[in-house]
Specification:
Blueprint: E1 6-9, E2 14-18, H1 29-35, E3 40-44, H2 63-76, E4 82-87, H3 89-100, E5 105-111, H4 121-141, H5 143-155, H6 157-161, H7 165-172, H8 175-181, H9 189-192, E6 199-204, H10 209-221, E7 225-230, H11 237-240, H12 242-253
Helix pairs in contact: 1-12, 2-3, 4-5, 4-8, 5-8
Amino acid sequence: MMPLHYERRGEGPPLLLLHATLSSARQLRTLATRLATAYTVVSVDRRGSGRSVLEGPARPIEVATHVEDLTRIIEAEELGPVAVVGHSFGGCVALELAARRPQLVRAVFAYEPPYALVAPPAVQEDMAEVGRRTLTAHDHAGPAAAALAFMEAVSGAEAVAALSPAARARVELAGQGAVADATLLGMDPDALDRLSCPVRIVTGAASGAFYAHIAEALAARIPAADHQRLDGLDHMAPVLRPEPIADAIEAFLA
């Protein structure tokens, strides 16, 4: 059984914190520390990311595997029904966990989940192209190239070109996670119809429009879901502007 890295801090109701692609629990430490003033926060390096690295070559990971990993952590830490907060792909995993293990999840806060399977066909094709470009880059030049290809497909060539040498090196180290996440492998949108806990899908007003399209589709599909837009925030807000994200999480969970 693969060991998974996670960090626990704070006291109070349990909260599971899940990072985005090209990221790890480390990037969410400021958000985790703020939330830990009111919650027991468990921040996870998902399989293939951060310190939960894979043995052997990078490969796409079924979302069911992530669900099983998180189930093990929830049970090992005796968290009971837990609030799950997910950023980007971490938000997709949060939704899948709640749909597949409803007894373990009391609420979901998902910030800009790229759950393309519920989106219009054009958005679905855009996300499928992200996966194709990421895997092609990996097959041709390895994990570092896959990470850069993923970032370019999502954020544009200008964002990659603007990286400092240190930032570029950090992105390249996240190639295994890019390959793990990029194809959205094994997502089950039909299961979302059965999701019964409160769900909030949150987007930043400064983010790409497709995140809002996906959020509206999710809010329409999930019985107990709504969509909240936060002014002035973009996709990286949980990492770069955690205070308004923490405020929104606390208001939702209250």
